[in-house]
Prior knowledge:
Helices cover 80% and strands 0% of the residues. By secondary structure, the chain is mainly α.
Amino acid sequence: MAVSKAVIKKKMLGLRHSSLKLNALQPAIALSLILVLILIHKVLPNKQMSGDTTNFIVIVLILAGLYTVWWTAALFVPSIKAKLNYDTPIIIAILLVVNIWELLTLKSNIFPAPYFPSISKIIGVLFSDWKLLGLSALYSLRLLFLGFGCGALVGIPTGIALGWSSRFTYWMTPVLRVIGPIPSTAWIPIVLVAFPTSLSASVFLVALGTWFALTIMTWSGVANVNKAYFEVGRTLGASDWYMLRKVALPAALPVIFIGSFKALSVSFVALVVAEMLGVRAGLGWYIQWAYGWAEYHKVYAALVVMGLLFSSVISFVFYIRDRVLVWQKGLIKW
Length: 334
C-alpha cells in the first residue's frame, strides 16, 4: 500500500509539473498568434477591399502589450497567474478564429465579399462610423428602458395581484392565456396603425413582452410564498397591506428577478424587430439601413455593438440582483 501511495503521489507531481509547463507555454502561444495575425496583414496580398487597417493593427499591438504586462505580472503574483492560466486558452481560441477568418476572407476570398467581411474591416467601421453607431445605441437604450420600465410598472403589480387575490386571478387568467403566448412582434401591423408615432408603438411592443414574462414570474413568486409567514403575521396583528409589502414581495423577489432576465431577452427581440420595421433610429434601424446598401461590414459592426450593449444591460441587472439579494449572490450564473 505504501508503494502504491508513493507511485500515485509521483504521478500527481508529474501531472502537476506538466500542467505548469503547458501553462507556461500558453502565453507564448497567444503572443505568437498575435504576431502571425500582424504578418498575415502585412505580408499576404489582399483578395478583398480592406480599407484602412491602421486602427486594427494599432489595437492588436496595444492588446499584445497589455497581455505582455499581464504575463509579466503573473510571474510574481500567484492570483494573477491563476487568472492568466484560466483565461489564456479562451484567448488562444479567439486568436485562432481571427487568424483563420482573416485568411478565409481578406486574404483568399473563400468567404466572398461583401457578405463575409474581414474582422479588420469591421473594426474599421467602429472607428469611422462611431458617431452614428453611438447615437443608434443610445436610441436603442432609450427604447429599451422605456419599454421595459412600462412593462415592469404594469407586470409586477399585475403578478402581485394575481398571487394575492383569487378573484383577480379568476378574471385575469383567461386574458393571460389568450394574449400572453402571442409574440409581441406579431402585433406590429396593428400597433403601427393604432399608435400615433412609431416610437410609442415600439415602446408598447417592448412593454407587452416584458409585461407577460414579469407577470407570470411575479405571480408564481407571490403564490408560492410559505403560508406560515402570513399566519404568523396575522397572529401578530399585521394588516394585509403590511404583509404584502414586508412578506410577500420580499419573498418573491428571487423569482421576480428571474422573470426580469426572461423579460429582457424578449425585450431585445421586440426592440430589434420594431427598429427594423418602424422606428427610424436605433441599432435595428442601422442594421436594416446598412443591409439596404449591402454594407455588410456595417451590419457586423452593429451586431458587435448590440452584443456588448445587451450583455452590459444583463450584467447590470445581475449586479442589482446580487446587491438586493445578498444571500443568493452567485446562485444564478451569467
